[in-house]
Amino acid sequence: MVFSSVIASTPHVCLPKIARPALRRTIRCSAASVSPGFDLKTYWTSLIREIDQKLDEAIPVKYPQQIYESMRYSVLAKGAKRAPPVMCVAACEIFGGNRLAAFPTACALEMSAGKATHLKSMLYGRIGFGLSEGSIQIVVPLSLISGKLQSSCPKIMYMTYLKSVDFASMVHAASLIHDDLPCMDDDPSRRGKPSNHTVFGEDMAILAGDALFPLGFQHIVSHTPTDLVPQTRLLRVIAEIARAVGSTGMAAGQFLDLEGGPNAVDLVQEKKFGEMGQCSAVCGGLLAGASDDEIEHLRKYGRAVGILYEVVDDIREAKQQSGEEDGSKSKGKSYVSVYGVEKAMDVAENLRSQAKKELDRLEKYGDKVMPLYSFVDYAADRYFGFEELV
User: Residue 389 in contact with residue 51, Cβ under 8 Å?
Assistant: First the structure.
């Protein structure tokens, strides 16, 4: 992998080079930035229900039956957070778009997140990582929030939203399927349930991931009404997703995680985790017709939130494992493994600040930005559990 091609793809998240003197015991986002009247849990839950229904319709069981059963096993996994689709929807709604117009892309993102990793690995003779049960799916809401669709037909607009959400879900699931494979992270289970390859075999898991990615693109093209979303916008959405999962995006992150040295940690985090976050938010804005400047703010916001979520996950896991016998799984390059918990907490605080700073640039949209602000708080604090939502 040529490092210059990775570096040239998108600007890097500016991370602190040294830890601040005071060690924060908890990661907190400023409560002042978020409206006390906004209920993220209710917002997220309602979207999950709609997304799950659309995903069920998007992947019916048909011949060859075993492949479709494998695809459905991961995409329709119980307890999935649907973070990518939700972020996509939320971003679309910021600019006045109806969430139904973003659902096709959002669902496609959920399907393809896992396939993206597989694509990266294939470029370097490996199999990428995929998505499976229990995984986070942030993409859908962001797209809906950014949607700036203008239409006199609410029903059609809503249908368009759902199509976008479908795509987000497909992409995400594909990446997790491949991520769990023995040649990658070798995870026999995900969130307490057997991984896809454990149930259906490695060959079927690879095929399921391979099938989900193109299905996501097909879903966007065939289910998004062009009277609501012009073809030029759809082309930009497809190009954005292809970029995010390709050789300068998530694939590069997976490669660097496998082959890069300790100094690659920044790029690993940015490419492997930040790409899906920024892609989810950007797709929502593109569907809604956001300006180039607004798209750039969404891109920087999504990248910061995507990395923040992973950093906080690593911190929480490290604290849970402290005092435990060695043997707990710790694969990949993270800020915790390379720099320690204290530095990782400083990084998380910096990312939180960056994400909210980008949203401040969208203040003219008022309360419509509240869902995205709340995602930052949730990524840092995890103040409710998704086992409560299903």
Answer: no
Beta-carbon-side half-sphere exposure of residue 311 (alpha carbons within 13 Å): 35
The class of domain 40-290 in CATH terms is mainly alpha
pLDDT digits (tens, 9 = 90+) for 186-210: 778 876 788 889 999 999 988 988 8
Token pair 């942030």 is found at: 138
Closest CA to 345 of 313, 299, 384: 313
- For residue 332, the model assigns a pLDDT of 66
The secondary element (H helix, E strand) that includes residue 385 is none
- Helical segments of the chain, H only: 3-7, 40-58, 65-75, 83-93, 103-123, 139-146, 154-179, 196-200, 202-223, 231-245, 250-259, 265-269, 275-288, 292-321, 335-339, 341-360, 370-381
pLDDT of residue 109: 87
Dihedral pair phi/psi, residue 190, rounded to 5°: -140, 120
pLDDT bucket at 360, cuts 50 / 70 / 90: very high
At residue 170 the predicted structure's pLDDT band, cuts being 50, 70 and 90, is: low
The per-residue pLDDT of the chain, averaged, comes to 75
Closest alpha carbon to 96 in 373, 376, 364: 364
Residue 340's CB: how many other CB atoms inside 10 A?
Answer: 12
